[in-house]
Amino acid sequence: MKLSNSMAYKSAKEMIFGTALKPVKTKRGLILGGGYVIPEIVPHPRPGSEKTIKSLLREFERANEDALERCVIVGIPAIQIENEHVFQMTDNPQWGMEIAAQTAHQLDEYYEKYGLKCSYRSTIADIRKPDQIDMRNSERTDKIFEAFKYSSKYADIISIESLGGKEIFDYSIIRNDVTGLLFGQAVLGGRDMEWLWTNIVDIAKNNNCIPGGDTSCAHANTAMFMAGGFISKDIPQTLAALSRAISVSNTLVAYECGAVGPGKDCAYENPIIKAITGIPISTEGKASACAHMDLCGNLMAAVCDLWSNEAIQYTDMFGGSSSAVFTEILGYDAAALNSAIELGFQKQFQACLINSDRYRSPHSFILCPDNAWAIGKAVVDNNESLYSRARAAALKSGELMFNDPNLQFTAFEKESLTKYIKELEALPDKEDDFIDMCLKKYSKVKGFKPSSYNL
Amino acid sequence: MKPKSETNKIFTRYDINVEVARQTARKVSEDENLQKVADCIVSGNEDELENLVKSILHIKEPMEIINGGLIAGMKEVSRLWELGVYFLPQVILSSDSMIAGIKLCEQKLGRPMEKKAKVVTHTAEGDIHDIGQVIVNALLNAAGYEVINLGADVPVDDVIEACRIHKPIIVTGTALMTTTMTAFPKIAFGLKQINLNIPFICGGGAVNEEFVTSFDLGIWGKEASQAPALAEDALNGLSWLEMRTKWNG
Lengths: 455, 249
What we know:
The complex is a heterodimer of chains A (455) and B (249). Chain A is of the alpha/beta class. Chain A has one domain: TIM Barrel, CATH 3.20.20. Chain A has helices at residues 53-74, 87-91, 93-114, 139-151, 166-173, 178-206, 217-227, 237-256, 270-277, 322-343, 346-357, 362-366, 369-381, 386-403, 411-425, 431-441; strands at 19-25, 31-34, 38-41, 43-44, 78-84, 117-124, 157-160, 210-211, 282-284, 306-308, 312-313, 316-317, 320-321. The longest helix of chain A has 29 residues, at 178-206. The two termini of chain A are 17 Å apart. By secondary structure, chain B is of the alpha/beta class. Chain B has a 5-stranded parallel sheet with strand order 2-1-3-4-5, sandwiched between helices. Chain B has 2 domains: 24-109, Methionine synthase domain (Methyltransferase, Methionine Synthase (B12-binding Domains), Chain A, domain 1), CATH 1.10.1240.10; 118-248, Cobalamin-binding domain (Rossmann fold). Chain B has 11 helices and 5 strands. In chain B, helix 2 (32-43) crosses helix 5 and helix 4 packs antiparallel against helix 5 (88-109). Chains A and B meet through helix 2 and helix 11 of A and helix 1, helix 5 and helix 6 of B.
């Protein structure tokens, strides 16, 4: 695998919502990143519906139907539906396939009847728990690939949220240990993704399906949720920001193995990924408050190609089902963004989105297009290894945060950031030396098996 | 377009506005060595603590080190966390250090230190997101409980069997996904069937009060940080219903 050595975009100024340098065309002709923002709705089944395939099929049927119908009712011109597998859909790959087949059929009906431009992403659940199984050789691993094979027969796009390195990440994040984040995310997560995505891309090609992309949701989003808002005392925002910068190294691997986008919605690192690769990206912000809070609700739309809600549990609301309601919310968000494009005000609109959240938190600060591009540049300029580029991304983030006087920190966040940067600077330059150091340091972490990562 | 530096009409950084004064740990012992032990706990320095404990085990009784240094230091850590001065990682590092120190003392004692009580923790069947449970384990360990950690993706019957064997004062369940938390009422039902009316604290991700209080034994835990206080209530003899009334209204 060749590590990226150049930026797709010459500067952040070229980056805008709705357009990607490498747009992706889906089965029914919908182009993602082709000039307009497309809403991506993600309905999630209610607890209890997972008991049988019959009840789960019905749950997705209703949720998808409500979303598609609302598109027609309010005039949303295009939609992508994502079905994220619940555990049972990957654990029983046949279930995932039946739901994929049903969803594709629903989309076909709306496309034929109304001309609704639509596409379907099926996201397989990573049911491997790193500290419990051999990541590359277990019954669960086999089921994941089987689920990819089955679902890719019907979906436009397949994706996953891979869990490589999660055991070391979880151990480290609650110990304020940025070295462990580098090791867990970049070294282990990146190696797992390389192995995984080499196989996923082959499966997708065999079934004429688009290999979408991956995310560091298991790591950087865990950090972001733990950092929380302005009340949480779990971890400092600055550590979550560094975890996000580090995540670029592993998420990028999927694209280096042949994934073409659109990037997964929950990958908040996607603005950096887009700057490097030029692929279309899905992002989420204010409309994903139904699933979790974040401090970059508007900002995340600044360079999006699809605009998502992360996941909304199917339930009744005053305005219809949650699936219909959130489709409408996303549809109007996309309409506002697309109106700005049509009027030629896209840069002004983008400035509003960025200024809403730029200084709201360290995490949102590093995801602004200018900073995202600068972090991406540090990644490609330090591409000797997964480790070296992740470390460079973290150091660049720290430099950017410290150098902007408008970004405020709490005392603990500032102290912590100073400590992290010092720690990062003192680490070895060579990946082999870093791995040797970490294999010793984390040998006591319960369930950590270097062989899962071919180490 | 140059970013705007004045943002007070756009958002408010409440965290900076209400930031508490940076308090430091108080002195907990007149004995110089025990104070050093407590200092290592407060700073979460495990390596230094291990060396220190090894060296003073020649001149002090293990229980004196445990009570006068390790536990006294951990109480300071808990105080600083409650004040909002400490963040979770500082508590976890202190807890790691305390466990390492206690282990050394137990070796000298020749027996395990007596714990307050047993607690059983698990993450729901089909759910592999266990970071919440890891935090609960660390906090309960730090508070002096013996944690029977069943891990993640634990079948319903295994949780019931562990409770039958260990008779814990509480059992906890963590779930990120709504589609896995459905294991919780099954566990509660199984426990009741064998007459184990153990308070069953459920929390995590999409788990909510309405769901947990819809079945007997269930008490909703909003935050992992509540675990030690909930265990304390059970230790003091509160029934699951009294605990639910107190914590969930």
